[in-house]
Amino acid sequence: MRKKIIAGNWKMNMTPSEAVKLVEELRPLVQNEAVDVVFCVPAIDIVPVAGAVKGTNIKVGAENMYFEESGAYTGEISPKMLVDAGVSYVVLGHSERREYFHETSEDVNKKMIKALEHGITPIMCCGESLTQREQGITIDWIRQQVKVGFQNISAEDAKKVVIAYEPIWAIGTGKTATTEQAEEVCYAIRNCIAEIYGPSTADEIRIQYGGSVNAANAAELFAQPDIDGGLVGGASLKPDFGKIVNY
Ligand code: 13P
C-alpha cells in the first residue's frame, strides 16, 4: 500500500513572518500520521518554516533547486544548502517554472539526479496545456516529460520520486480535472514507469494530482486507484488545507 502524500505549494506567497504565522495556524489542523504532509515554501521561508514545524509530522519542501553543487550561479540555491536548512522534498519542473523560467525536461532531469544524490525527494511535475489536451496528445506529452525526467535514474532511486500530474488548464483556475481525467493520466504515468522500470517500481512510486484541489474534491480524487495524494496550491494557504489532509 502506498502512503498518501499531500503537499502544499505556496508558490510566491508569504513573507518569512507571514509564513511562521501560517504554519502556527495550520500545524494543529494537519496532524494526520496516516499521510505524508509537506509544505513546499519559498526559499526565504525555508529556515523559519523548518523551525516552526520542528517536532511535528510536517516536512519542509523547496519549490526549486539548481543542479550544480556550488559556484558562480548568482541567485541559485544548491541541494546542500537545502539539506542544511532542513529540506527533505523539492518541487521540480512545475509548469510555472517551465513556462516563465524556460525550464526544460532536460533541466528537470539534471535537478532530479542532483536532488536524489543529496537525499532530497523530488516532486516532479508534469502536465499538458489546454491546447495539447484538445489536440489529443495529453498522454504522449506526459510520457515524454516522464521519460526525459527519469533519464539515467536507477529503479531504486525512481521509487523514491513523487510525480505530480498537474494539467496546466486546471492550475489556479478553479477548473479541476474530473476524477476520470485525473485517474486516466495518473494510470498512464504508472504504466510509463512500468515500461521503464518494471511493475514493482511502478507499484511503489507515488503519483499526485494537482490543479484546483480543494476541501470539496480531495476525497474523490484521492480515492482513485492511481492517485496517491495531491499537490495543492491556493488551498494550501488556508485552513482548508487541514480538511484536505484529513480528507
Ligand atoms: P492550485 O491548487 O492553486 O490550482 O495550484 C496547483 C499547483 O500548481 C500546485 O503546484
Describe the structure.
There is one protein chain. The protein has 247 residues and is α/β, with parallel strands linked by helices. It is 41% helix and 17% strand. It contains 12 helices and 8 strands. The protein has helices spanning 16-26, 46-52, 79-85, 95-100, 105-117, 130-134, 138-149, 155-158, 179-197, 199-204, 218-222, 240-245, and strands spanning 4-9, 35-41, 58-62, 87-92, 121-126, 162-165, 206-210, 229-232. An 8-stranded parallel beta barrel has the order 1-2-3-4-5-6-7-8, surrounded by 5 helices. Strand 1 (4-9), helix 1 (16-26) and strand 2 (35-41) form a beta-alpha-beta unit. The longest helix has 19 residues, at 179-197. The radius of gyration is 17 Å and the shape is globular. The chain starts with a strand and ends with a helix. The mean pLDDT is 97. 1,3-dihydroxyacetonephosphate binds at residues 9, 94, 166, 171-172, 210-213, 231-235.
Q: What tags apply to this protein structure?
A:
single chain; 247 residues; alpha/beta; eight-stranded parallel β-barrel; 12 helices; binds 1,3-dihydroxyacetonephosphate
